[in-house]
């Protein structure tokens, strides 16, 4: 009786699996996991080919140091696969916060400052406060903004600084989600936000 032939996986297969699993869970960041990031760079072609079979595209920005998966956009005549990564339905206020943080990053880049962009919770409160009706309850506002910040952190757009939950480091992946065209229309969008946030009956 013939014995079953045992196949020894190549050394790259476990690393490929680890990289793909990490990408399916979220983003790979050069600063937070340099080993996984290097593995992704070494296996970039294999990873891209593998996730392509799942209807996903690998988005990798080597200069900024991040990578993530995005559901492929299909043409009308293309055979569509079931969506593996669900679309994120952002609330109005979280969308507003992302837009404001993206503008903050653009201002930092334009000034030639450091690559790292750090913003405090107090700054975020002030940025959002101008869009809310006068006399808004301060305690409720703080609770709401903390909730928005936690959502942004959970989605990987920022991280809380070690030793201080009041300081937030923005992640440059925001640039991929709030692109240049969106930013160019920022003033118009802010005007719409102000109108939407006005209490009914105000002129």
Uncertain spans, ≥5 residues at pLDDT below 50? Answer: 1-9
- Which CATH class of the largest domain is shown? Mainly Alpha
How do the strands of the widest beta sheet line up side by side?
Answer: 1-3-2
CA(first)-CA(last) distance = 88 Å
Q: If you average the pLDDT, what whole number results?
A: 77
**What is the fold named in CATH at topology level of the largest domain?**
Arc Repressor Mutant, subunit A
CATH architecture of the largest domain: Orthogonal Bundle
How many domains make up the 3D coordinates? Answer: 2
Classify the helix fraction into a percent range.
40-55%
Largest sheet: 3 strands, antiparallel
Report on this model:
The protein has helices at residues 12-25, 34-42, 44-52, 92-110, 121-129, 138-154, 174-177, 180-184, 186-197; strands at 28-29, 56-61, 66-71, 117-120, 158-161, 164-170. A hairpin with a 2-residue loop joins strand 5 and strand 6 (164-170). It has a 3-stranded antiparallel sheet with strand order 1-3-2. It has 9 helices and 6 strands; from the N terminus they run αβααββαβααββααα. The protein has 2 domains: 12-71, Arc Repressor Mutant, subunit A (Orthogonal Bundle), CATH 1.10.10; 92-197, Arc Repressor Mutant, subunit A. The protein is of the alpha+beta class and 203 residues long. It is elongated and about 60 Å long. 48% of the residues lie in helices and 14% in strands. Helix 1 (12-25) crosses helix 2 (34-42), helix 4 (92-110) crosses helix 6 (138-154) and helix 5 packs across helix 6.
């Amino acid at each position: 009786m013939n014995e079953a032939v045992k196949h020894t996986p190549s050394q790259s297969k476990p690393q490929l699996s680890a990289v793909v699993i990490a990408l399916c869970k979220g983003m790979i960041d050069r600063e937070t996991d340099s080993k996984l990031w290097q593995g992704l760079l070494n296996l970039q072609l294999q990873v891209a080919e593998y996730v392509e079979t799942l209807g996903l595209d690998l988005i990798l920005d080597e200069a900024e140091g991040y990578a993530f998966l995005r559901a492929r956009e299909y043409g009308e005549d293309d055979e569509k696969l079931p969506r593996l990564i669900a679309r994120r339905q952002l609330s109005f206020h979280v969308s507003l916060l992302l837009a404001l943080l993206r503008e903050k990053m653009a201002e930092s880049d334009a000034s030639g400052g450091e690559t790292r962009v750090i913003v405090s919770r107090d700054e975020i409160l002030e940025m959002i406060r101008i869009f809310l009706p006068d006399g808004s309850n301060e305690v409720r506002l703080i609770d709401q903004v903390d909730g928005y910040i936690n959502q942004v952190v959970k989605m990987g757009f920022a991280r809380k600084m070690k030793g201080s939950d009041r300081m937030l480091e923005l992640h440059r992946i925001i640039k991929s989600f709030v692109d240049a065209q969106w930013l160019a229309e920022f003033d118009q969008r802010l005007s719409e936000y102000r109108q939407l946030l006005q209490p009914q009956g105000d002129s």
